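Final report, Chapter 2: Outcomes

The project's central promise was a pipeline that accepts a single protein chain and returns its three-dimensional structure in a standardized token representation, suitable for archiving and comparison. That pipeline is now operational. To close this chapter, we reproduce one record exactly as it appears in the project archive, with the input sequence first and the structure output second.
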Amino acid sequence: MITCFSLYGKNQVLYVQYSKTTQSDPQETARVFFDPAIGMHLFVDSPVKQRVKMDAERFLYYYPDKNIALAMDNRDATLASASMQLFLYTDSEDLGLSNIGFKLINYSVKNDTLIKKWEIKGKKKRESIQIEVYIHHERVQKTRSYDGFGKQIKEVVFSHWYELNNYFYPMHLSIKENDRISEYDYKQLKLLESIPDSILAMFILPEDCEIHEYQF
């Protein structure tokens, strides 16, 4: 079991804000604290107040207004999180995929773009995920994910690269999934020495919190 995100690359503690726009949905705004040793702590400020803690083994969604938490045991969920992809897919030789079980199965070059294909298999027949990674001028241009039947399930396009402490971060993500397109705009990217204790304390669930456990 992977127990920390330091395997994904940069060993830098970061803070960033983002806004998410998806067609007719209300705009989502959030603040993110990321420490590769302990994972991500995310505050969703609107449209619904939410505190989300993500590490390599578990997602925890806490709704402070209702004092309800949803806990999800899902190691593969990191790939589903747009917030996490900001950190997974930047300046890492293998994009962090090998450390969560993916194997490089093929690569090709089209014009001046390198295309790497990664795969992770489950226990059942055709239970797998393939990810194509398109790299242009040493920057990840986009990724495409496919299920075990070859159906495309997600496309992520990375742009507006920003340099911070000799690393480059895409400050815009466009994600197409289930015929819906979500646009993520990041700002105020900063380096931190650590996530403040006052922030970490806000993710300790109250004793009377109603917790619902899920496993996928």
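Archive annotation: The helical segments are 82-88, 197-201.
This record, like all others produced under the grant, will remain available to the consortium after the project formally closes.
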